[in-house]
Amino acid sequence: MPKKSTGHGHDTRYIRMQKNYCFACGNNNPDGMRLKFAYDEETESFICRFRLGKRYTGPPGHAHGGIIATILDEAMGKVNKLRNVIALTSEIKVNYLKPVPLNQPLRVESRELRVRGRQHTNMAEILNQNNEVLARSQGLFIAIDPQKMFAKFVER
To answer: Least enclosed by CB within 10 Å: which of 51, 67, 77, 155?
Structure first.
């Protein structure tokens, strides 16, 4: 059974990073989205509620597809916290089902599909306030050794 986790941002207890500049969730990125996720034990999923402002415009009045993919990727990445691993995105598939509106309450939900060795397959959906799925993704994440991969970024 995966361990429960709450909070937001990247879990850096394995290594002490200087600051979190992640575009999607980093508190130290002044230009970032600063998405905050919480774990819902009942649905066994990570959830983030958000609104997208005009800076994320793609088609008029709607979000850019790259921003949608970013949100879905970030949400799926949070799921790896359940297994206490740092896993990087290897591939994602995004289905853009309906345009994602700007300045509307939205949420993204993500959950684990399967784990095989270092390979973690997760999924996420962006929903509107009527619970309509606007975009859906599936991603493959590969667990890494953060001590080796991020050694030059560790505080000394």
So the answer is: 155
